[in-house]
Amino acid sequence: MSTFLTDNINISVRPLYEEAHSVPSSNDFVFSYAVTVKNKGEVTVQLLSRHWYIFDSNGSYSEVKGEGVIGEQPIIRPGHSHAYQSFSSLKSDIGMMWGSYLMKEVESGRLFEVAIPEFQLITPMRLN
């Protein structure tokens, strides 16, 4: 698991290779990842948007930008968290991701970015 703290917002990511949804013979490797966004601060925040960087060991690179996460822009009170799952497909069996969330302090309207830690996408067969 990868974890990082920015401005009292703790981001944890746990990747998982999805063997049942992958087709290695066609260079299609699917990875899911579970993200937990925990508010360790004293003010309520809202996650407005995401920006992902996705690298594949075959040399390809992509960026994904968009509002919220899985169709939501969650409001997270102090001491609470928001968890969700998503996925990414690669054309090789090794890659990595990282990024950032744009957050807003609900009361003041202050905008700030929170780092999403880098995490590895590696099939179990490559770990042997």
Ordered list of secondary-structure elements with their pairings:
Elements: E1 2-6, E2 9-17, E3 29-39, E4 45-56, E5 61-67, E6 75-76, E7 81-90, E8 94-105, E9 111-122
Antiparallel strand pairs: 1-2, 2-3, 3-7, 4-5, 4-6, 4-8, 8-9
Estimate nothing, just give the exact number of structural domains: 1
* Structural shape: elongated
The main β sheet shows up as: 5 strands, antiparallel
Assigned CATH superfamily:
ApaG domain
Strand content: over 45%
Structure class: mainly beta
Along the chain, the helix and strand elements come as: EEEEEEEEE
Number of strands: 9
Low-confidence stretches: none
CATH architecture: Sandwich
Describe this structure in words.
Helix content is 0%, strand content 62%. With 128 residues, it is mainly β. The chain has a single domain, classed as ApaG domain (Immunoglobulin-like), CATH 2.60.40.1470. Strands 4, 5, 6, 8 and 9 form a five-stranded antiparallel β-sheet that branches. Strands 1-2-3-7 form a four-stranded antiparallel β-sheet, with no helix packed on it. The model has no long low-confidence stretch (mean pLDDT 96).
Question: Nutshell version of this structure?
Answer:
The chain is mostly beta strands and 128 residues long.
Pick out its properties.
128 residues; mainly beta; Immunoglobulin-like; five-stranded antiparallel beta sheet; four-stranded antiparallel beta sheet
